[in-house]
Design goal:
The complex is a heterodimer of chains A (519) and B (431).
Chain A: H1 30-46, E1 54-59, H2 61-69, H3 80-94, E2 105-106, E3 111-116, H4 121-141, H5 143-148, H6 154-172, H7 174-186, H8 203-226, H9 237-241, H10 252-259, H11 265-286, H12 288-308, H13 314-327, H14 343-359, H15 363-368, H16 377-387, H17 390-397, H18 400-406, E4 409-414, E5 419-425, H19 431-441, H20 444-447, E6 450-456, E7 464-469, H21 480-491, E8 495-501, E9 504-511
Parallel strand pairs in A: 1-3, 7-8
Antiparallel strand pairs in A: 2-3, 4-5, 6-7, 8-9
Chain B: E1 5-8, H1 18-27, H2 29-42, E2 52-57, H3 58-61, E3 73-78, E4 89-91, E5 115-120, H4 122-133, H5 137-144, E6 149-157, H6 167-201, H7 213-232, E7 243-250, E8 255-263, H8 270-290, E9 293-301, E10 305-308, H9 310-315, H10 325-338, E11 344-352, H11 360-372, E12 378-384, H12 391-402, E13 407-412, H13 419-430
Helix pairs in contact in B: 2-4, 6-7, 10-11, 11-12
Classes of the chains: A alpha/beta (519), B alpha/beta (431).
């Protein structure tokens, strides 16, 4: 039976033991979970995984769906969209379409991971290895998370946000709060600073500063708008042409929070809350392949290590491998189940292959990865985990072998042609092209339209103009007008959006919509 | 690396998303109301108390965000190449765009789902129905409480809350206890006192050796001791307290019959009938909470009346004139033959657009007053019309003056006006 189990190479520093398996039944108990966790922790330490302390919470399926529907926030403010999410999650779960085991782990200190009560023991062990040691070490060490999130403050901040929103509902009514939240959610992806590092969030700080902001903000706003009607400025053509803001602003929500003329203080505060949450989730959106790949690599490696030590038996491994295989299954592009590249598969393949490159490099590897061939694989993998995000990680580490294994190819779809064109495949001339194309696919500003605040008509009708810079002539989607209505609700005056491709306005949207113009 | 903390969370935080669900239902109440209204039309009036599936068009429920649309010149990397080599071209399927290139808004479920469907619970269903009927909260609660119990006296208990203390019983108990504990001693005291009196009244012996003095002293001491003993018996003790005990008992297993009377002459449109149906549903729900067994009798009439099943009652049409008394007569006949008022609680609900053959209205009044109202618990009449009243209404108004407790009438143009007809009924049964 052991033949079918693929053993990775054991690290040299501890000889395989011949111990009794921790358990032989697949029923879990709290005591067994504790024992497994202790052994997984020992294995993780052998490989130098550096984690926050763990908190493992055993929950029911219903609670898991709760956690799902609040996008993994253990405490969230109330909003109808979470209710909607819960309904569709529970529907999927009842139909048996969805396993609920993997996804939820909170980037917090201690790192909270959920185990569902109905899982078998091997599944619980898998989730612990995956979430509590894999994701956890990623959260603690990846540079994006280190830069943009404060794991020790997030729970307190969520509690603060929940209370604040509830208080606003009491004061201003559920409808008024819901409207603002709807509009903020519509622009949530445009509520992040991509380059500037924001101040870390903390609840007590937040409470203290909230009062100060109330006064300060109003004063600041008045300053901005007071300069408007100053006579004399209009005569100065240079001054007149100056845009506000001077530079395009990528953080649309931040811009609105600080500059929208009519918002009340509590409304600005709610924008701020949504913005802060967007910022907190921003690293996760940019590291999906890496994060899942890393966690999957480690649940695979750690559980195999347990097997080598004799801590789990063949039956356990079979069940484990079955789950693992399902996680990393990649349907081909022409399969009815295909819905894009599976991030688990891609990430797991790259990390696994990087280990191979370190340990058993071929000539090809020495040529492609001279810096990594024949290095300590644990150190090299940690280096890769710490210093990259999906885009750069793929650009750096996607190997020809992985491209061959996954049989990657790139296809061009030009709306001005009647055919698709295959531009590269997994062969020598194609590797670099594929790698570049795939890396670009994970660039957030390529995945999402690039839209920034362009100008405010400070002297005139106070309208806000957003500018969209299309990539590859790809236009905006059908919901654009709808989103603009939300922007309009927040800004309080007309909002325009223009798509500008190489200096030419190719498309315009307006809210309120313009009548057909006759110039 | 710190120790792992393992927590069992299964017991707390249940139903955490209840508020979010409520927010969701609130936001889409118009869709849900419509689904509930459709269900009310579709379902039998005896089949109102269960949940319902609600579908909302996906476009109404989407949370819009900026995303890429179709078009442009894009390149996407896919897995699973079989025979393609670089430079191959593949004709696009006719009809433009072709398959999505995995960039934008493919629905997460894969296949196009243009409906967001979910289930509302029985409780939520009734809540929306009651919204429609503008039922006040108290009445809702009475209709929704799934367990209809009443409290019946069931003797006395030594434990209970002060409010249920039975003073008479407790004092009686205390008295008995005092008797029980003190009785023997009091008897002894009486005996000793008699002896003492005897000694005291006896002529003094001259010989001091036979003096009663020390005897008297002993007796007096004994009496004092006994009296002190008796005095220490508390007037009322904890063990004396008696509390009235109540037991939850299911509502009496009595039966009710509900007569639904409706005019189906040509002037009653389907809209009228839908409003009438809500009116009957409300009465049915009310009865269901109060009686274990309910028969429903449907009587429709135009110039003549007929007992029919529910389907025919609500959905077949007739033409011609209207003679309301025919229905009342039939109802009376059915009561006499099948529903003896001694065994059945009789309720009736009548819906009409107010039309009646003029000469018939006084007949109706008389029938109600003489034959029907003495037999029934409650008779409710709704006139579904925005127009001026006709003769029947004025006749019925007179009836209401005579029987304010068992007869109610209301003119309604929309379902929200139905409830007032029942107000009295709900209040009366509240006790």
């Amino acid at each position: 039976m052991t033949d079918i189990i693929d053993r990775p190479n054991a690290p040299d520093f501890e000889p395989p033991g011949t111990r009794e398996p921790i358990s032989t039944s697949s029923e879990w108990t709290f005591d067994l979970i504790r024992q497994y966790d202790e052994e997984i922790a020992k294995c993780a330490a052998e490989f130098g995984l550096d984690t926050y302390p763990n908190q493992v919470e055993v929950i029911s399926a219903e609670q898991m769906m709760d956690a799902y529907s609040s996008v993994g926030m253990p405490v969230g403010y109330n909003h109808w969209s979470f209710g909607k999410q819960f309904l569709s999650t529970s529907k999927g779960y009842q139909r048996g379409q969805m396993g609920l085991a993997y996804e939820i782990v909170i980037n917090s200190n201690p790192c909270i991971a959920y185990l569902m009560e109905e899982n078998t023991l091997p599944m619980q062990a898998l989730v612990i290895a995956h979430a509590s040691y894999g994701h956890n070490s990623f959260f603690k060490n990846n540079y994006l998370f280190r830069t943009w999130t404060d794991a020790s403050a997030i729970i307190d901040y969520l509690v603060f946000a929940r209370h604040y929103v509830a208080e606003c509902e009491e004061r201003h009514g559920v409808d008024a709060v819901e409207e603002i939240l709807d509009s903020c959610h519509a622009l949530m992806n445009y509520g992040v600073d991509r380059y500037k590092r924001p101040a870390p969030i903390s609840a007590s700080e937040e409470l203290r500063r909230q009062k100060e902001r109330e006064e300060y903000q109003q004063r600041r706003l008045n300053d901005l708008w007071r300069t408007i009607p100053k006579m004399g400025d209009d005569d100065d053509p240079i001054h007149r042409k100056k845009r506000f803001p001077d530079e395009p602003q990528e953080n649309i929500l931040y811009f609105i929070e600080k500059n929208a003329p009519l918002l009340e203080t509590w409304q600005r505060e709610i924008i701020r809350i949504v913005r802060k949450l967007a910022q907190y989730f921003y690293p996760q959106r940019q590291t999906q392949v890496m994060n899942e790949g890393w966690a999957t690599f480690w649940h695979y490696t750690l559980i195999h290590r347990m097997y080598e030590k004799g801590l789990v038996n063949d039956g356990f491994m079979l069940e484990f491998l079955q789950s693992h295989t399902a996680v990393v299954y990649q349907p081909p592009f022409d399969s009815p189940w295909y819905s894009g590249i599976n991030p688990y598969t891609l990430g797991f393949s790259i990390f696994t292959d990087l280990r191979r490159i370190c340990e058993n490099p071929t000539e090809e590897d020495r040529h492609w990865f001279p810096d990594f061939a024949d290095t300590n694989w644990v150190e090299s993998l940690h280096f890769a985990m710490k210093n990259f995000k999906d885009e750069s990680f793929i650009q750096q580490f996607l190997s020809p072998k992985v491209m061959r294994d996954l049989k990657l190819f790139s296809i061009q779809n030009d709306d001005q042609e009647d055919f698709y064109r295959i531009t590269a495949i997994h062969d020598d001339p194609g590797y670099r092209i594929l790698r570049e194309k795939l890396a670009r696919q994970y660039n957030l500003s390529y995945r999402e339209p690039n839209i920034q605040v362009w100008n405010v008509d400070v002297r005139g009708d106070r309208s806000l103009t957003l500018r969209h810079i299309p990539v590859d002539r790809v236009p905006l989607g059908q919901e654009t007008e709808e989103v603009l209505r939300h922007a309009h609700r927040l800004w309080g005056f007309d909002v325009h959006l223009e798509s500008v491709d190489e200096g030419v306005v190719v498309e315009e949207y307006h809210c309120p919509p313009h009548e057909i113009e006759d110039d | 690396m710190g120790m792992t903390h393992i927590v069992d969370r299964r017991l707390n935080g249940k139903n955490k998303s209840a508020v979010n669900r409520e927010r969701f239902l609130r936001r889409y109440r118009h869709h849900i109301k419509k689904a509930v209204a459709d269900a009310v039309q579709r379902r039998s009036i005896t089949d109102i108390e269960r949940g319902e599936k609600v579908s909302i068009p996906s476009r109404d429920i989407e949370e819009p965000i900026f995303h890429h649309g179709q078009g442009g010149n894009r390149e996407v990397v896919h897995p699973g190449n079989k025979e393609f080599v670089t430079g191959d071209t593949v004709p696009k399927p006719p009809g433009g765009g072709g398959k999505g290139q995995g960039q934008g808004q493919a629905s997460p479920d894969g296949e196009g789902m243009d409906e967001f469907a979910f289930q509302i619970t029985q409780e939520e269903f009734l809540e929306f129905l009651f919204d429609d009927l503008e039922l006040p909260n108290l009445a809702r609660k009475k209709l929704k409480d799934t367990e209809a119990f009443k409290y019946v006296r069931s003797g006395f208990s030594t434990q209970g809350v002060p409010a249920k203390l039975d003073v008479v019983r407790s004092l009686r108990g205390a008295h008995a206890r005092r008797l029980g504990l003190g009785g023997a001693r009091k008897k002894k005291i009486r005996e000793l006192e008699e002896q003492l009196a005897a000694l005291k009244s006896a002529p003094d012996d001259l010989d001091p050796a036979f003096s009663h003095e020390d005897q008297i002293q002993i007796l007096e001491e004994e009496i004092t001791r006994l009296k002190a003993n008796v005095k220490r018996i508390p007037f009322i003790d904890e063990i004396d307290l008696r509390y009235r005990q109540h037991l939850k008992q299911p509502k009496p297993a009595t039966s009710a019959v509900m007569f639904c009377l409706m005019d189906v002459s040509g002037s009653m449109t389907q809209m009228h009938k839908d409003i009438a149906k809500r009116f009957f549903i409300l009465l049915y729900l009310f009865l269901k909470k109060n009686y274990k067994k309910i028969d429903v009798v449907f009587i429709r009439h135009h110039t003549s009346a007929k007992e029919v099943d529910e389907e025919e009652f609500f959905y077949s049409r007739e033409t011609g004139g209207t003679i309301v008394s025919s229905a009342l007569k039939l109802m009376h006949k059915i009561i006499e033959s099948r529903y003896s008022p001694a065994e059945w609680n009789i309720y009736a609900a009548q819906a009409s657009d107010g039309d009646n053959w003029n000469d018939d209205s006084p007949v109706c009044g008389k029938l109600l007053a003489d034959n029907i109202l003495p037999l029934v618990q409650y008779f409710a009449y709704v006139e579904i019309t925005p127009q001026d009243h006709q003769m029947l209404w004025y006749e019925y108004e007179k009836i209401q003056e005579q029987y304010p407790q068992s007869f109610a009438l209301q003119q309604i143009a929309d379902p929200g006006e139905i409830y007032p007809v029942f107000r009295q009924l709900f209040e009366r049964k509240a006790a």
